[in-house]
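Sequence only, no structure available. Ideas?
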Amino acid sequence: MIPKEILKKIRRIQITTSRMVTDTFAGKYQSVFKGKGMEFYEVREYVPGDEIRSIDWNVTARYGHPYVKKFIEERELTVMVLLDMSGSSQFGTHKQLKSQLAAELCSVFALSAIKNNDKVGLIIFTDRIEKFIAPRKGLRHVLRVIREALYFEPQGKGTDIALALDYLNRVTKRKTIALIISDFFDRNLKKRLAIANKRHDLIAVTVSDVREQALPDVGIVELRDAESGREVYIDTTNPLLRKGYEESALSRIEERQKLFRSIGLDNVNVSTDVPYDKELIRFFRERELRFR
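Reply:
I predicted one. Tokens follow.
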């Protein structure tokens, strides 16, 4: 039995993200996420303006005047959300933890898929595969996806994105829209990302927190690595230390963006301290322009 307070939060997330999907992303989803291809729909008589190459010569020969083949986009899609629940996701210094932001993003994508009659599935991972929910349709199914994204308790602490991508390729037989929601604190990803990006429409959604990029001057603080458990004390009054921290963070971000560009991987960057809807709208607009 799910506790009432958890049901209330699931319902609140559903209402909030449903409103956003309807008001903000209406019409965007279909224009940026394409179907698997074109499928035959019908044969009809030729009318001036139809392309010559679409003429069905067999039917034309049978009836003595031209007929053309009509095709429509095979619209139904499968959306797979790969959700990183490693230890580093349990960090946040502003409005929410990265894990909470990731769960809300998962809800937005899942509801968008269901609203367009597409299937949605979920892979939760850390340094192991924690949970797999096979893609299906329907609101009841989406509520289960949202619940797991919000309240699943993982066993692992580390991050293995390559493992999650390999698992995705094993459990999916056809091309999917695959969204990796992670802080991408992982290395040696280029080969696996490139392979998955060729097989699927892969999108990296990077979740971050402002304090991962800059340290405030607040004296001596204790820092603990959420994945390894290693602890260290640092003096944030030291300007050289703060500068080195910022430079290291900037280098990590630039390296990640360079990786994404090198393999043509679409990506969205969101942070716990700013509303994510603007970044999603920017992402949708850029893809829409590219597909025109």
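The chain has a mean pLDDT of 85.
Hope that gets you unstuck.
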